[in-house]
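ok so i was messing around last nite and threw this chain in just to see what happens. nothing serious, just curious
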Amino acid sequence: MTKEKAKTKSFNRIGTFTVIPGTDADVSVPDPTECIIDTLLPKGFKTILAGTTGSNKSYYAMQEGMSIANDEDSFLGFKINKKGLKVLYVDTESGTNEMHRRYLRVKKTFAKWKGSDRFIMMSKTGSFSAIWDSLKTAIKKYEPDVVYIDCLYNSTTERDLAKSVNVSKFTDRITEIRDRYDLTIRIIHHFNKGGHELGLKMDRMSGASALQNWVEHLMLLSYTNVSSFRLLRIVKARGIDFPREYYGIEWDAENFQLSMLGIASNWKKYLLDENKVGKWQYALDEMPEKFATKDWLNTVVHKLGILKERQAKRWLQEMSIAKVIEDCGHGQWQKTDIKFVDELIDDDIVYFEE
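result:
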């Protein structure tokens, strides 16, 4: 028997559940998982781009959305598979004037812009609670394929996103809108404060674990200690394989454009606090190639007087994690080949080829 493609709506429902008997599953095939942009944006998914303040999340979202609307061949080196899509960009943070300015800036980065009729923007004014009815009205009017909501925090009246019950009030609405209008949703979100040296991990995203469980595709974006350099990483993608590497992204502040540099093999180096890095370098310059913990403590605590003993011991562990020094065991340490020079960025990037 030839398998016919079955639409979910043809199956029976019990309340909120769709029921698929095995006998029906045997003679039908589910819709395949497709990507609007390879790896970065699966079609029909509830996705989040979360990042640090100053990582240019909003510019990322606008540049990505405008690339889709403009039928570009690729975005950040990843192939755009779907053409002719309409994009709705919903701003809840920057305001109408800044949103408009960003649009005009990003528009200039395209060799030939032809996506004006398929890229619609709207910026929120007034109370947070009004967003949902207005958003549904806009979706009905413009019939977008992809919706960007920038950002989550200003889209809900709930301020304590550490509580699952508050998160669910937002996620339930997004799920309902996605399902009713057959949309791909990209939500822009923030990180918790601190933990920068830990890297791009899911737990750094603001919100209860319920948000992590709900999202179907999650990317993280971070500023670094090099002003023009960003790090991007995919940490969750339900139903599709995805790379776990850190991608190096260049931010051109003059032209307001993000571009792919390549895979950052030594990402830890770029997430260290600049002041701390300077102090590490200052302290390590006083140490021989191989040294003992007691000699380190004597130098930084007593001779240089820049740390207390507890901090000094913690620095040894942090520098070891960053591979600046190596733990040789038994209180012995050795400097590595990793140096404190920003110029090493070019050497540490494997350039991306389409």
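not much to say yet. DSSP finds ten helices and 21 strands in the chain.
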